[in-house]
Amino acid sequence: MTHPATVLGAAPPAPAVAAQYDAFHAARARTGLVARLYAEALGEDYPAEVAASSSCDWPLLGLMTARLRMQPGQLLVDAGCGTGGIGLWLARALAVRLVGFDISRVAVGEAFARSGQFLPPGRAAFCVARLEATGLPDGCAHGVVCVDALSRAADRDQAVRELGRLLAPGARLLVTRAVRRGTEPVWEAQARAAGLIVEHVDERPGEPGMWERLYRLWIDHAEELRRELGEDQAANMLGEAHRVLPTLPGRRAVLLTLRRPVASPAAPGAADTMARPGRHPDDSERTPQ
Ligand SMILES: C[S@@+](CC[C@H](N)C(=O)[O-])C[C@H]1O[C@@H](n2cnc3c(N)ncnc32)[C@H](O)[C@@H]1O
């Protein structure tokens, strides 16, 4: 098993952004409180072993398992893997190899430390890399998953192109997305620009309600959060809870399955059809944490 500090060829993460995520992961690693509140908010749908910092629940794990359609021994990439539970769980379930990456060195260290609980030595590797520039080889992956991380990329169009670039012909990219009801999703155009086909759009009707329960718990436990995570991290969480709660009734959450065609065009080459980099037409997409 390897734990490279950086990936060859990848641009290093912007230090300030990486440092924010390092602080986020380091604070959560110090306490079981955040995981307990996730468990309470998700109830029976909480996959405790995975312990994600996201909307990952049993229905999502089931959907991803079915949509990936991977064969034993193939390579799965977990993009924005956090502490690694989702990729590790899927890799064990599907008998595949795993590469996980995240912008946070702290998260990658934790993912590496957990890998032995799920997989035998040599089946998983983790590295520090960005969604927009992974440094991984073209066509290396038979499946890519990206759970509640795409909305954090500085340039989502570029991130979809980059994750699409990793897909072997016929392979799939599964990504959680959210949009305000009544607005036109950008994912069709982003997929086309990356040379991918939208194969499935699976609705996740329980996702906004899960965030609502979690945010109310965060607000109810504000004092404990401050005590256990420190002022800064607690302030980030409580600010997010107050900001996002009112938007949840209008939120539509989905799991997208994007596929690279089996006979792939030589290059996506769709730069002229792409939305301007860095433009986020619908910021309701930003996924809570
Ligand atoms: C909400 S967490 C989800 C983590 C994990 N996928 C899960 O479901 O538990 C978002 C993750 O994205 C990572 N992240 C944020 N911006 C990133 C970027 N530009 N490239 C790679 N990872 C990024 C953060 O460090 C964090 O671990």
Automatic annotation (TrEMBL):
Compositional bias per record (Basic and acidic residues), positions renumbered to this chain: 279-289
Source superkingdom: Bacteria
Domain Methyltransferase positions: 77-170
Region (Disordered): 263-289
Transmembrane regions listed in the UniProt entry: none
Cross-referenced InterPro entries: Methyltransf_25, Methyltransf_Superfamily, SAM-dependent_MTases_sf
PANTHER family attached to this UniProt entry: METHYLTRANSFERASE, N6-ADENOSINE-METHYLTRANSFERASE TMT1A
Protein name from the UniProt record: Methyltransferase domain-containing protein
Species this protein is from: Streptomyces thermoalcalitolerans
